[in-house]
């Protein structure tokens, strides 16, 4: 059965959790979700994050500085 691009990627699990658009290039997988690299950002200051360089609180990613400021 043919699918449009969005439903095809939704079925494959390759929609960006940040923008809900298909991921066709580089991808970051974190918190059991997939992101375009530019959409994996701190939930507070919006600085771009890298996998492994963030802390998680309430299913949201934070840079170390914001995490310490908000939850430390």
Automatic annotation (TrEMBL):
SUPFAM superfamilies given in the database record: Glucocorticoid receptor-like (DNA-binding domain)
Keywords: LIM domain, Metal-binding, Zinc
PANTHER family: PAXILLIN, ISOFORM F, PAXILLIN-RELATED
Annotated ranges, domain LIM zinc-binding: 14-72
Keyword Zinc: yes
Pfam families: LIM (PF00412)
Domain of life: Eukaryota
GO molecular function annotations of the record: metal ion binding
UniProt protein name: LIM zinc-binding domain-containing protein
One GO cellular component term: anchoring junction
Entries under SMART domains matching the protein: LIM
InterPro entries: Znf_LIM (IPR001781)
Record carries keyword Zinc: yes
């Amino acid at each position: 059965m043919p699918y449009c691009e969005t439903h095809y990627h939704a079925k494959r699990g390759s929609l960006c959790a940040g923008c809900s658009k298909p991921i066709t290039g580089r991808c970051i997988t974190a918190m059991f979700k997939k992101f375009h690299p530019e959409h994996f950002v701190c939930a507070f200051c919006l600085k771009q994050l890298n996998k492994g360089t963030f802390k998680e609180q309430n299913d949201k990613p934070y840079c170390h500085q914001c995490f310490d400021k908000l939850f430390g």
